[in-house]
Amino acid sequence: MSTKKLSKGRQKIDMVKIKNESYLQVTFSKRRAGLFKKASEFCSLTGSEAAIVVFSPGDKAYSFGCPGVSEVIEKYENETSHLVNSSSTVEEVHHRANIIRVNNEFEALQAQLDDAKKRSDKLAEIVEATSKRYWWQVPINELNIEQLECLKFAYDELDKKVQLRAIVAGLFTDSISFDNQNASGFGRANGLQSDKFFNNDE
Amino acid sequence: MSTKKLSKGRQKIDMVKIKNESYLQVTFSKRRAGLFKKASEFCSLTGSEAAIVVFSPGDKAYSFGCPGVSEVIEKYENETSHLVNSSSTVEEVHHRANIIRVNNEFEALQAQLDDAKKRSDKLAEIVEATSKRYWWQVPINELNIEQLECLKFAYDELDKKVQLRAIVAGLFTDSISFDNQNASGFGRANGLQSDKFFNNDE
DNA sequence: CCGACTATGGTTAGACG
DNA sequence: GCGTCTAACCATAGTCG
């Protein structure tokens, strides 16, 4: 007989890059499957078209598409051409297409930012409530983990914004080519681990 | 007073296209947000690149990309075929004037963002330390007020970024009509085999 | 390494303001 | 129509075979 707990079940994890290589691979596979499944359900439910492209840490490409990856991507890129095909040169069309694409990405980032902001607002309330008084009644451990997630998420969004600026700059420096000459390196040296603010004297 | 059950909670739904138009819109928004969030977590966790493009039932395009939609899509297309971008030069001088202006604003905002980020990083340390344990020893009142200020400041900067997007859009709306009112709501008979791809266990 | 299992965290359908 | 709440469904981290 066993009164011992067999599994701790799912535990909360930090939303930071996994260092352990094998565990990273497992999580990549699991979550990629989950993401594609979500996308599939999404398409079925709403009857909309969607495409996902992901690159594994080993740079292998995986994709999902309804009705197909190419169809959706082409539609995404052609949407711009259709909008501007009344104007003159091919170069102009291409240029403006890029602009519209940038605009789309802005909107995408805005949505993500809204989410981050919402979450962080919630967190701010919590922090404030904590500071006010009843912090000894607050389930601090859980909540503050969420806080960190919020902050982490918000910072990532900030980075993306900055990167997008680089893209825009590149667009206009070189009139046509959209190639990513911007670094695109996610250089967030997150120093989220730091108890050095006040040492634990227990 | 009510002893009655207020909500039935989440109920299982058929994975078929929703007919009710307004409910479809709600579900589209909710699930798109969830999908993008999942993708964001996925990227953070695995450090991999990913892009999502979706078209709403009204054919509006939404996208998510890490580090950017274009980067990922280009990388994806380059894997299959090495198509070369025909580079040309466009003589849109007056256009560039506006462009430079936008770029300047971007740089100005970036500086502010860097500052906001720096301050927020500091705050993150505080929050982290607080979450760890000895929060009851922290001079919470002071620190968290600063936290809130940092957050507020950061969010204001983000909002400015978003506003700048509108400027970018506005710059080009005189050259090209931006809003697509085509919206020929077409009902696709979605025959997407969603869950066949991933066997539901059990 | 991969699949199965389980407990738990996370997502969201439904109801309400 | 959007935000919020809640309960229930769903995804998945940790674990074992």
UniProtKB/TrEMBL annotation, chains A, B:
GO terms for molecular function: DNA-binding transcription factor activity, RNA polymerase II-specific; protein dimerization activity; RNA polymerase II cis-regulatory region sequence-specific DNA binding. It is found in: Nucleus. It comes from the Eukaryota. GO terms for cellular component: nucleus. Residues 8-68 form the MADS-box domain. Keywords: Coiled coil, DNA-binding, Nucleus, Transcription, Transcription regulation. InterPro entries: TF_MADSbox, TF_MADSbox_sf. It holds the Pfam family SRF-TF. Residues 99-126 form a coiled coil. This is OLC1v1025172C1. The lineage of its organism: Eukaryota, Viridiplantae, Streptophyta, Embryophyta, Tracheophyta.
